[in-house]
Amino acid sequence: MIQTNVFDYIRVLDRAADASWLRNEAISNNIANADTPGYKRQDVAFESVLKEALGRCRYVDMDDKVAGLRRKALDGRPYTDYESFSYRLDGNNVDPENEQVMLAENQLKYQGLLTGITHEFNNLKTAMQ
């Protein structure tokens, strides 16, 4: 039997793709509500969650860190960004141009994550042949 931790990495990539999808929805919501008075920008934290989860075990190699991650610990966390900040009189803090750039950036991340997952499964398929 092959001993591999590739599924641990696939699980992390899967959770990152889920968080990226949530971020895409949040950014799309921000764009849709750019003219809604009092609306506050939403975002999803994943990178900081992953960094925190991996940083708990300082003297452990990366394979063991990834293997020890709990699925729930890798959930993206939605939050309101700059809740008390607004540069507009109506209380809205969404900058539509910035949101468009963030949407494009996030879509590239999502595509990269899916490519990484596909690559890992192709490697498994090649190893099984």
Multimerization state: single chain
Overall form? elongated
Mean pLDDT: 86
The radius of gyration computed from the alpha-carbon positions, rounded to a whole number of angstroms, is 18 Å
Walk me through the topology.
Layout: H1 6-32, E1 42-45, H2 47-55, H3 62-67, E2 77-80, H4 96-128
Antiparallel strand pairs: 1-2
Describe this protein's structure.
The chain has 129 residues and is mainly α. The chain has one domain (6-128). It has four helices and two strands. The chain has a two-stranded antiparallel ribbon. Helix 1 (6-32) packs antiparallel against helix 4 (96-128). The chain is elongated and about 60 Å long.
Structure in a nutshell:
This protein is mostly helical and 129 residues long.
Which labels suit this protein?
129 residues; mainly alpha; two-stranded antiparallel ribbon; 4 helices; 58% helix
